[in-house]
Amino acid sequence: MKPLFIVIEGIDGCGKTTQIELLKNRFKSNNQKVIETAEPTDGPIGSLIRNIMKGRIQTDQSTIAALFAADRLDHINNPVNGMLKKREEGYNIICSRYYFSKYAFQSEYVPIEWLVSMNSLSKNYIQADYTFYINVDPKVCIERISTGRSEIEMYENIDKLTKTHEAFLKHFKDHGEGENIHLIDGHQSIEAISDEIWGIVGAG
Questions:
Q1: Would the pTM count as exceeding 0.85?
Q2: Runs of H (alpha helix) within 54-187
Q3: CATH 1.10.3720.10 for domain 5-39+91-203
């Protein structure tokens, strides 16, 4: 089997981190090579984005969108640890967030046509075999964030999470042609969510 590229999407507080870890362990238990990665990355562009998200650096939304696109291209093509290189080495890749996150988070501030165009090169380089959206009520997510975090990022408030959740669903519908997108009920138990995701991946 060729290595898989799997994207886990969802608003903050939906449980992505837990599900990524469980999915990674499923691959390992089957003696398959797997890596976990995320956007923004830990590279220089991604580090700059993280500082912006934490409010340490001030800039405008169009600049943030352009930085995310640049970080994604480095994430794909970096000759040392880029996703294309890792896939050539036989690794299944599980990525927290990809271009649909940018459509959802940033289309409130910049034209969606610009975002889609700017990310088209990334899509041409590597498109997800599976995109899973962990579908959780934003009110539940904000409760989890409020009780589990000591530091809140710029997009982590109920109004923004609600708009982002609605935007995810809209952009999956409007720009999801040819994408293998699965909406997963995130109100299930952790184990049930993991079983559902693995059932789809394993069946594929």
A1: yes
A2: 61-77, 83-88, 99-106, 112-118, 120-125, 138-148, 158-175
A3: no
